[in-house]
Protein: S-(hydroxymethyl)glutathione dehydrogenase
Amino acid sequence: MDVRAAVALEAGKPLEVMTVQLEGPRAGEVLVEIKATGICHTDAFTLSGADPEGLFPAILGHEGAGVVVEVGAGVSSLKPGDHVIPLYTPECRQCEYCLNPKTNLCQAIRETQGKGLMPDGSSRFSIDGKPILHYMGTSTFANYTVLPEIALAKIRPDAPFDKVCYIGCGVTTGVGAVVNTAKVEPGSNVVVFGLGGIGLNVLQGARMVGANKIIGVDLNNERKALGEKFGMTHFVNPKEVEGDLVPYLVSLTGGGADYSFECIGNVNTMRQALECCHKGWGVSVIIGVAGAGQEISTRPFQLVTGRSWRGTAFGGARGRTDVPKIVDWYMDGKIAIDEMITHIMPLEDINKGFDLMHAGKSIRSVVLY
Ligand code: NAD
Ligand code: DAO
Ligand code: ZN
Structure:
């Protein structure tokens, strides 16, 4: 079938909105009509050419929501009409990783997904017979896409697509890091570095679980009012702190953070996030993705004296199990999303969404098909 897609033809160039061809679902696959998709920094990172694993030409996009149109042979958990959120971290419930409660990193389709291909090693997208690659197994910058059944979370039908698409990455990553990875206890003191699309969701996750002090750190003073809407109790701009940031945060938390979260992708702030943690028990969770080849450092004595360094992908969430629950949290008013969707646009204007992101003017732009 012909579908409309924003195609990344090559690195460093704007996306081109065009008609491409999409083959129907093969065994174990599902055709989904994408109704809305968020534009995330990871799409921009890949499009820029800085992502060493970025492949072109490809159809980017990994933060979508839509409706099942057709299922391939053997698909048993979904049917046409079901509402779904695509999962860049699938959940097969059978692999060694899925069977280990310590991780959410299902590996069932990892190899082919990383190559921009469906599990059988081929692409469903093409232009004039030449294949176009999938991206993160999702390719939500097309109004129809094909995904493996294990990479789709079935959600309730009354959830609005233009809001819950954000649960496909940003919301789950931030809230999940608090709930699943750190398991923040009520009364904890929390420090969040970077108050963008991820950090704001860490703030509201911390509020939801009943954290005590929720301290946001950002160079942009405009993030203060925004952070306060999502539960931040104190704002710190490192440029306005006299002396070193780490002792300032240790003092502000009364001895150090019980939990800190790095939501920037900067190896220097990763170190600060670890070192502002409480001696004896503080845990620092890295969410930000640093540039290729970069390394983190600290004095090992920081770990010897009881601080721990952790990392998290997709908020430690098992998508088919956890994403429907996060949709319920939104529908029940336990978490906010509407206030973070700052811009809505048609597919034709998708490059404007990238411009707004680069200018720091948006939290989330959403393409509504
Ligand atoms: P963003 O650009 O919207 O937010 C970053 C924020 O950090 C901005 O508000 C900026 O002002 C602030 N900032 C930048 N440098 C700073 C510094 N030195 N000190 C203090 N504040 C600083 O980014 P985002 O969309 O929120 O994503 C954050 C990171 O999370 C990115 O690296 C992204 O790739 C990563 N990410 C990780 C996962 C995962 O599963 N681990 C998922 C999605 C995104
Ligand atoms: O299983 O090896 C693996 C890869 C898992 C990918 C996890 C993605 C990490 C976050 C990247 C940014 C997501 C938008
Ligand atoms: Zn698995």
The first helix runs from residue 41 to 48. The radius of gyration is 20 Å. Residues 2-168+337-368 form a domain with the Quinone Oxidoreductase; Chain A, domain 1 fold (CATH 3.90.180.10).
